[in-house]
Write a structure and sequence with these properties.
Elements (H helix, E strand, L loop, with lengths): L2 E5 L2 E3 L5 E8 L8 E6 L6 E6 L6 E3 L7 E6 L4 E6 L8 E7 L3 E2 L3 E5 L2
Parallel strand pairs: 2-11
Antiparallel strand pairs: 1-3, 3-8, 4-5, 4-9, 5-6, 7-8, 9-10, 9-11
């Protein structure tokens, strides 16, 4: 069956870093655009980063440009979100998406001192 399993979330101090990973299985990963979204309490789901199927083109939300990077490994079926210089406003549940069809369950990121 199709699975997207996120990992790497947790509690980090402002200015710190986290690396989120999403492991895909059950579908042809290399054919999909992969995205990371986030949702903070009381807010809608926000697109954070996107990468094309071959990993040659990325898109980042203005709020994370210069701090986050997205990458993928089609051989391993994984997509990664490297998050640096984290801010309290980055606190949210982060979701992996095989656009537009498949979603993971999310991993919580909390940025707090």
């Amino acid at each position: 069956q199709v699975q997207l399993v996120e990992s790497g979330g947790g509690l980090v101090q402002p200015g710190g870093s986290l690396r989120l990973s999403c492991a895909a299985s059950g579908f042809t990963f290399s054919r999909y655009i992969m995205r990371w979204y986030r949702q903070a309490p009381g807010n809608g789901r926000e697109l954070v980063a996107s990468i094309n199927s071959v990993g040659t083109s990325t898109l980042l939300a203005d709020s994370v440009k210069g701090r986050f990077t997205i990458s993928r490994d089609n051989a391993k079926g994984t997509v990664t979100l490297q998050m640096n210089s984290l801010k309290p406003e980055d606190t949210a549940m982060y979701y992996c998406n095989a656009f537009p069809t498949y979603w993971g369950q999310g991993t919580q990121v909390n940025v707090s001192s």
